[in-house]
């Protein structure tokens, strides 16, 4: 009898602990109500400093003079404001989404000389339909109730909710998991790249070359990233509460620029009445390290806010030899750039 009473008392005393323990498990999943809408404002600010520069042309060192003129940071800023209408979702996946681009602005340059990016706002005021094609395993993208340049849709991505950061199931405070490295690029460019070509001479061709020659290498480099995620718990904000996920990442990679630079040179020389023989070897080493926080709206099943900071290091080496009009020239160049970036997204609540 005493043992039974002891067991009962122990169970009663342990009950609050068991309830509290069970309440800790949370499910952070993508699943907005069909037809709901959400305003999102995404800002990106990236700056680079030239730490070291060497340029030797035909045996003459001219890097020192150039280095003296490059004491200002090179920076790029972009703002994208959209309204996402979740027409239909299923099983934690976008099935049909309407995205209206309300604002797209960008500018870049040095601190003393900046200019706006031409053509970056070509999708502004347009609504794009993303519809999942189950047979082909891709999203079909099209203008909604309008017509436009189809090429502007190629680099768009449906996900601006950072669903790749979410855990696969229920989690408790302190639980950790890894995000797939092949999704790392979505942390830097949620929703893809909505910018236009800029309309300058040869810029469309240069962009095509970039997509063909460099983009696969960049995606492969990001695919090797290690992204560690942690569920911190619930963060209260007034009357609302949100699930808080923090993440850290690091990665490095190498990109062969040789074919891309050679193709760009040949593009620039089109129509020139001279024979030029060019040999280029160029490599770019990249390293990234960063951290961020995702606040998840469990009631709505969407992102509430996102913040990320990143430190970057780029090291480039270029060797080139040119034979033209009976003359030969050689160039050796190397550059080291350190950079930092800040990404931030806020949401304006249900836009219905």
Question: How does this structure look, described?
Answer:
Strands 1, 2, 3, 4, 5, 6, 7, 8, 9, 10, 11, 12 and 13 form a 13-stranded antiparallel sheet that branches. It contains five helices and 13 strands. The N terminus is likely disordered. The longest helix is centred in the N-terminal third of the chain and has 23 residues. α4 runs antiparallel to α5.
Through-space gap between termini: 63 Å
The biggest sheet amounts to:
13 strands, antiparallel
Helix fraction, binned, reads 10-25%
Number of domains: 1
- Total strand segments: 13
List unreliable stretches of 5+ residues. Answer: 1-23
What structural class results from the helix and strand content? Answer: alpha+beta
Number of helices: 5
Shape call: globular
Question: What's the SSE pattern?
Answer: HEEHEEEEEEHHEEHEEE
Radius of gyration: 26 Å
Mean pLDDT rating = 85
In what range is the share of β-strand residues? over 45%
Oligomer: single chain
Task: Provide a compact summary of the structure.
It is built from five helices and 13 strands. It is α+β, with helices and mostly antiparallel strands and 352 residues long.
Topology readout:
Blueprint lengths: L1 H23 L11 E22 L2 E2 L1 H6 L5 E17 L2 E17 L4 E3 L10 E7 L4 E6 L32 E4 L5 H4 L14 H21 L2 E12 L2 E17 L1 H11 L7 E22 L4 E23 L2 E24 L2
Antiparallel strand pairs: 1-2, 1-3, 1-13, 3-4, 4-5, 4-6, 6-7, 8-9, 9-10, 10-11, 11-12, 12-13
